[in-house]
């Protein structure tokens, strides 16, 4: 029965997850944009003569944007690979092969 065969899964390049470097770069750019907006808000609050409600809005943005920027920079995207850590079960008393002396 020819119709019962399963078709092989075809993987496409567009299905690949972004690399860790690309994810970090994206988060860095987002952080810098938010901190740039914060700097502009701080300058507007100090230099530009605007009514107090607007000045308080600029000051509030300058105070809370760093928190938002750091939270966003530390949050990995859904498709990013998990960070790699050394296994805690590794035998730390064993000398690695590349560190062994000749003749030992």
List the helices and strands and how they pair.
Elements: H1 20-47, H2 52-74
Helix pairs in contact: 1-2
Compact description:
The chain is mainly alpha-helical and 104 residues long.
Key attributes of the depicted protein:
0% strand, elongated
Please provide a written account of the structure.
The protein is mainly α. The protein is 49% helix and 0% strand. The chain has 2 helices and no strands. This is DUF3099 domain-containing protein. Residues 79-104 are annotated as: Disordered. The chain crosses the membrane at residues 31-50, 56-73. Keywords: Membrane, Transmembrane, Transmembrane helix.
Oligomer state equals: single chain
Biggest sheet overview: none
Percentage beta strand: under 5%
Distance, first to last CA? 63 Å
Overall pLDDT, averaged? 79
What is the C-alpha radius of gyration, as a whole number of Å?
Answer: 26 Å
Low-confidence stretches: none
Helix content: 40-55%
Structural class: mainly alpha
The SSE order reads HH
Number of strands: 0
Organism: Nonomuraea thailandensis
Transmembrane segments: 31-50, 56-73
Region (Disordered): 79-104
Pfam families: DUF3099
């Amino acid at each position: 029965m020819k119709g019962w065969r399963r078709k092989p899964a075809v993987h496409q390049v567009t299905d690949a997850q972004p690399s860790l470097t690309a994810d970090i770069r994206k988060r860095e750019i987002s952080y810098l944009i938010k901190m740039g907006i914060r700097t502009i808000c701080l300058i507007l609050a100090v230099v530009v003569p605007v009514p107090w409600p607007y000045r308080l809005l600029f000051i509030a943005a300058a105070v809370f944007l760093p928190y938002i920027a750091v939270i966003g920079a530390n949050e990995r995207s859904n498709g990013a690979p998990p960070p790699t850590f050394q296994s805690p079960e590794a035998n730390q008393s064993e000398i690695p092969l590349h560190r062994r002396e000749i003749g030992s």
